[in-house]
UniProtKB/TrEMBL annotation:
The keyword Glycosyltransferase does not apply. This is tRNA-2-methylthio-N(6)-dimethylallyladenosine synthase. Keywords: 4Fe-4S, Iron, Iron-sulfur, Metal-binding, S-adenosyl-L-methionine, Transferase. Catalyzes the methylthiolation of N6-(dimethylallyl)adenosine (i(6)A), leading to the formation of 2-methylthio-N6-(dimethylallyl)adenosine (ms(2)i(6)A) at position 37 in tRNAs that read codons beginning with uridine. Residues 1-34 are annotated as: Disordered. It comes from uncultured Rubrobacteraceae bacterium. Its EC number is 2.8.4.3. Pfam families: Radical_SAM, UPF0004. Residues 165-391 form the Radical SAM core domain.
Length: 459
């Protein structure tokens, strides 16, 4: 996936609306499951983990004879697969629940399920007092949706297999769940639990199966993928090496700087099948703040990692996450973050204004940063990132790139692709998603490159 500079809504994890399928036909329903056509709409908020969980729920609703539709108005069942990481994510969900209340009163929507990270938090029960919610599921028991929609409820639908979706050109493969860190500001450990790593052979088997079924791009997924550990002392780099032999195009997200090994960076540079982009959240450039956040590294150690990355992967792209306005952040801390952003010359960054989360350590800290100050710092950091990103993107103009088509054109004849170094590119082609074209980069903005007509047919 591309990593645009964003204003702090969804992290390295743009919100994705999953809405496939057509209006139902009675012949589409499975015998015994449905006596009337049924429709479902699964709306996803938040990170790739949620996108992946939604993919699996989508498979369940299909198995139960539902057709997927594009809007709440058309849906009998609405699943809101939610994010809890920042308060504005919760506010957005409340807005959607309000609209669903109205549609339920009018008899247009029949059932509403709330899943994902809000479902795993105690706040879900409070929401249920205000909004009409028929089912609440956390991230650990999403498989129970199966029972709710009339499938034989089996835990295997979801765990421990964590299956990707076959037949898709680009697929996520979860290699670990949960997180063993305790960053001061973060709810992930409390809603996703402690780290559980999937055995290497199990991951390899799934990737083989997916590749056989047509997957051309595998993204290894986890909150801290590079913390993955296997039997016999195997580490993430060993897993990545195996997968880079099995799949034709591979990426991974998200990494934690404390776990990122130099040999992993070298592998990215050496292996032709690995996309040359690294997402390595730094959060702050101030050692004082990094300590308060319990990130477990100092700014100069992070910068040394980046130097290794730039050396081993000279044509690679680098993105990060940054939080502005964590309690106690001074002007000096902010200046240090600005300096780190300049020095690392990120190709893109997700910048977030700190959002206090109930139950986290930072939410109890007294030295809050005023909103106006946080807003100014936020804009200053965004501008600095954009300036560097624009300059770096400009340097790609004139080059010829092999481009993987991520999203086929949607009528305007322009598809969205990705270069091997991880740049997002708009390219005028009708090539299908999952194919490659070769084209010259003609211009560049801060977030995206623009290619000319491809030379030759898609591959
Ligand atoms: N596991 C990933 C991050 C998951 S959350 C990692 O450690 O990198 C995605 C991003 O959301 C984080 O990197 C952080 O920048 C941001 N974030 C998390 N909690 C936040 C909060 N309370 N306020 C603002 N941003 C937050
Ligand atoms: Fe949250 Fe920190 Fe774990 Fe990332 S590493 S999920 S920010 S606790």
């Amino acid at each position: 996936m591309s990593s645009p500079i964003t204003s702090g809504e969804s992290g390295n994890n743009p919100p994705v609306v999953i809405s496939l399928g057509k209006k139902p036909s009675s012949s589409g329903a499975q015998p015994g499951v449905a006596d009337a056509p049924k429709t479902a709409f699964i709306k996803t908020f938040g990170c790739q983990m949620n996108v992946h969980d939604s993919d699996r729920m989508r498979r369940m609703v299909r198995d139960a004879g539902y057709a997927e539709v594009q809007s709440y108005e058309e849906a009998d069942l609405v699943v809101l697969n939610t994010c809890y990481v920042r308060e504005n994510a919760v506010d957005r969900v409340k807005g959607h629940l309000g609209e669903l209340n109205r549609l339920k009163r009018e008899g247009r929507v029949k059932k509403v399920a709330l899943t994902g990270c809000i479902g795993a938090a105690s706040e879900a029960n409070e929401l249920q007092k205000t909004y009409s919610i028929d089912l609440i599921l956390g991230t650990h028991n999403t498989y129970e949706l199966a029972k709710f929609i009339g499938l034989p409820g089996t835990e295997e639908t979801f765990t421990p297999e964590l299956k990707g979706v076959e037949g898709s050109h680009s697929t996520f493969v979860t290699i670990m769940t949960g997180c063993n860190y305790q960053c001061s500001y973060c709810v992930v450990p409390s809603v996703r639990g402690r780290m559980v790593c999937r055995p290497l052979e199990n991951v390899v088997d799934e990737v083989r199966r997916l590749v056989r079924s047509g997957t051309r791009y595998v993204t290894l997924l986890g909150q801290t993928v590079d913390a993955w550990r296997g039997a016999d002392g195997r580490r993430f780099c060993d897993l990545l090496e195996r997968i880079s032999e099995e799949a034709p195009r591979v990426w991974f997200t998200t990494s934690h700087p404390s776990n990122m090994e130099d040999r992993t960076l070298r592998l990215i540079g050496e292996r032709a099948t690995l996309v040359k982009k690294l997402h390595l959240p730094v959060q702050s450039g101030s050692d004082r703040m990094l300590k308060a956040m319990h990130r477990g590294y100092k700014a100069d150690r992070y910068q040394r990692k980046i130097e290794v990355f730039r050396e081993m992967v000279p044509d690679g792209t680098l993105s990060t996450d940054l939080i502005v306005g964590h309690p106690g952040e001074t002007e000096e801390d902010h200046e240090e973050t600005l300096k780190l952003v300049e020095d690392c010359a990120f190709d893109s960054a997700y910048v977030f204004k700190y959002s206090p989360r109930r139950g986290t350590e930072a939410a109890e800290l007294p030295e809050t940063v005023p909103e106006g100050v946080a807003q100014r710092r936020f804009v200053e950091i965004l501008r600095t990132v954009e300036k560097n990103a624009f300059r770096q993107n400009q340097s790609k103009v004139g080059g010829v790139e092999e481009i993987y088509i991520r999203h086929a054109h949607t009528g305007d004849g322009r598809a969205v692709g990705e270069t091997w170094s991880g740049h997002a590119v708009h390219v005028p082609t009708t090539a299908a998603a999952g194919s490659y074209v070769t084209a010259k980069i003609e211009s560049a903005g801060p977030h995206v490159l623009y290619a000319g007509e491809p030379s030759g047919p898609p591959r």
